[in-house]
Design a protein that fits this description.
This protein is an alpha+beta fold and 410 residues long. The chain has helices at residues 2-16, 29-35, 56-65, 85-92, 140-146, 171-177, 223-233, 244-253, 297-306, and strands at 40-44, 47-52, 67-71, 76-81, 104-111, 117-125, 130-135, 153-156, 161-167, 191-196, 199-204, 213-219, 239-241, 311-318, 328-331, 335-346, 351-359, 370-377, 382-392. The chain has three domains: 21-75 and 160-253, Gyrase A, domain 2 (2-Layer Sandwich), CATH 3.30.1360; 76-156, Alpha-Beta Plaits; 272-392, Aminomethyltransferase beta-barrel domains (Elongation Factor Tu (Ef-tu), domain 3, Beta Barrel). It has a six-stranded mixed β-sheet with strand order 10-11-12-9-3-13. The protein is globular. The termini are far apart. This is Glycine cleavage system protein T. Residues 58-291 form the GCVT N-terminal domain. Pfam families: GCV_T.
Length: 410
């Protein structure tokens, strides 16, 4: 009887203290924690991740002028392999997977049967029969259901594989100095394996900054030794560790979108009018209409044929220098036309830029007389400003070094 009461007490205390449960730490956390002068952490997929480490503005400039190291371990990673892995992925992805050759990566998205985007991400073809899918949301049950009938294995390897993004003009030279011989031969979206600590590290020429950059994937047990190898080589190349705030500035400049920030994924949408088709978030270019079947194909092509697409995601340039983040977009200062999802004053482009979702025909056939409503804090009081906006192409700028092969030796 006493044992039962003690057990019940312990369970009650555990329930009361659930809020004390710490977020998971990534394999690189010991190195990040040692550099975290701001102690500014946030929750990324249940992991403790840095929003900033020392100064988010200087961290941003590390991306653009030297090299920046960002922990991408919390990113969801799936291993999809087997004789029919390509056929299975062909069924679920809007892009033609058959055109993706071993040793290459491409950006893609996938939809539900109604053609609404479930998520976007990068698909790595590591061999003829082995793929890695990296994305924002968790989709294991859906992927397993989609794999029914195919000779394929789907597994979540998020915790098994640690990841780093190394971005910036000195990143190639840094990797070469670290002993990754031949790294300069990788073209944009190429993948290669290199030796590390008796095992291998997979390096792809990819990134989320619009700059020269690479992503490195290694077994979690070898994570710290990989960090130390890069850190030592980066001493003369200006290597700095960064948090998400700096990365977010760079990705906005590059015109990249983030799931559940710039669009709501189909599984997270509470209201029916919040879901989006690929064409409505700027991803229509990747839909391969020649494929005989993939999830959402009929709905997407029907919407195109009938002209029922309701939204459009695009870039805006806003007058002034006050970022228009989360501002309402108006036509003629009166008619609501949409909403800004991300905005910054771009240090590189020297422009006030924004990513916005507008309701058609605004942004589509009507681009005139657009305004954004900005509320700026001035001496503890919000000041309302109406600023003109014009539609501009994304990305907001292009850096030649992102695709130059071999990259220049900075």
């Amino acid at each position: 009887m006493i044992a039962i009461e003690e057990s019940a007490t312990a369970a009650r205390i555990a329930r009361q203290d659930h809020w004390r449960t710490l977020r998971r730490e990534t394999p690189f956390h010991p190195r990040l924690a040692a550099l975290a002068h701001t102690n500014d952490w946030y929750n990324w997929a249940g992991c403790k991740a840095p929003h900033s480490l020392w100064d988010e503005e200087l961290e941003y400039f590390a991306i653009r002028s030297q090299s920046a190291l960002f922990d991408i371990s919390p990113m969801v990673k799936y291993r999809i392999e087997g004789p029919e892995a390509e056929a299975c992925l062909e069924r679920v992805m809007v892009r033609n997977v058959g055109k993706l050759k071993p040793g290459r990566v491409h950006y893609t998205c996938w939809c539900d049967d109604e053609g609404h985007v479930l998520d976007d991400g990068t698909l790595f073809r590591l061999s003829e029969t082995r793929f890695r899918l990296c994305c924002q949301e968790r989709h294991l049950p859906w992927l397993l259901d989609s794999a029914a009938g195919f000779d394929v294995t789907v597994a979540d390897e998020t915790d098994e594989v640690a990841g780093l993004a190394l971005q910036g003009p000195t990143s190639c030279a840094l990797l070469r100095d670290a002993g990754f011989e031949g790294i300069e031969r990788l073209k944009a979206f190429d993948i290669a394996e290199f030796a590390h600590e008796g095992g291998a590290v997979t390096i792809s020429r990819t990134g989320f900054t619009g700059d020269l950059g690479y992503e490195l994937f290694v077994d979690a047990a070898a994570a710290l030794s990989l960090w130390d190898r890069l850190w030592e080589a980066g001493r003369l190349r200006g290597l700095r560790a960064i948090g998400y705030a700096a990365l977010n500035r760079a990705r906005i400049e590059a015109g990249f979108i983030v799931a559940n920030a710039d669009f709501v994924t189909a599984e997270h949408a509470v209201r029916q009018d919040r879901v989006r088709m690929p064409d409505e978030i700027g991803l229509g270019w990747m839909v391969d209409a020649e494929k005989p079947f993939f999830n959402g194909r009929r709905a997407i092509l029907d919407a195109r044929r009938k002209g029922t697409l309701k939204h459009i995601l695009l870039g805006l340039e806003v007058e002034g220098n006050v970022p228009a983040e989360h501002a309402i977009v108006y036509h003629g200062k009166k008619k609501e036309a949409g909403l800004v999802s991300a905005a910054i004053w771009s240090p590189l482009a020297k422009r006030n830029i924004a990513i916005a979702s507008l309701t058609r025909p605004y942004g589509d056939t009507r681009n005139d007389d657009l305004w954004v409503e900005i509320y700026a804090m001035r001496e503890q009081q919000y000041i309302k400003m109406m600023k003109r906006a014009k539609v501009v192409p994304r990305p907001f700028f292009k850096l030649d070094r992102r695709t130059a092969t071999p990259p220049a030796d900075f």
